Amino acid sequence: MTHVEQEIASQPRCWQRAVAQADGHAGRLPRHGERVAVVGCGTSWFIAMAYARLREGAGLGETDAYPASEFPTERRYDRVLVISRSGTTTEVLDVLRTVRGRTPSSGVLGDPRSPAVSLVDEPVCLPYADEKSVVQTRFATTTLAVLRAHLGHDLDQAVRDATEALTAVLPLDPAALEQVTFLGRDWTVGLAHEAALKCREAAGFWAEAYPAMDYRHGPIAVAGPGRAVWAFGTVPVGLPEQVTATGATFVHSARDPMAELVLAQRLAVGLATRRGLHPDEPRHLTRSVILT
Q: Stretch 152-158: mean pLDDT, rounded?
């Protein structure tokens, strides 16, 4: 098994550990009523998007998500929450230095020895979810498990769904697939973006992502035979039929969307294998982007 395959397989156990430790992390994460900016890069930004919608939708406070490079320093927040597996990403460290002493900060971090730990006011470290592969899988979903548990979500079904997703037959054949578009609504838009990113990173595969309601405003034009649309969360009325009419395959299930992401991660690995690529060593990428 590659590192990424092992890390994908470990996700249900990591989520269980995250839930078990949720009370211990509670005091370090955003408080009820705080106006919060959630910041990350790449995968971490997509997880930030998902959490921001969940938190604000639960009525716990206005919550915005930003890629670290685009954090609006002129806006006033009660707290900045950074998400970073390595804790070394240049843009994330720049944000932490900018807000230090001005705005309280929390961080969900993979490496407890990283420079981000000393820059953030209240770190939550998840070394058990850190990874050897360049491609992120379990750190991202375990971070979201921590944050969902903090919001009061019961993740027992998500864990069961993820366990099942590890052995389920892939809904798409990597050998026959030409292109895939992932769709989401509300908090699952971030997960759709993350699923598409896995396919691009691990396999250099043509994958896109959109809010499900926006898909018919242009992107559906690329749908057709040999291509697929994979929806996370609630599906707009009539969309499956419209996609099927193009000749494309429509994929959707009742699994918890976080568990559905596990299946999409497996598809990305399958696509990489089919294309003769090593999913642990994606082209042009490194584990952390450190700019000089």
A: 97
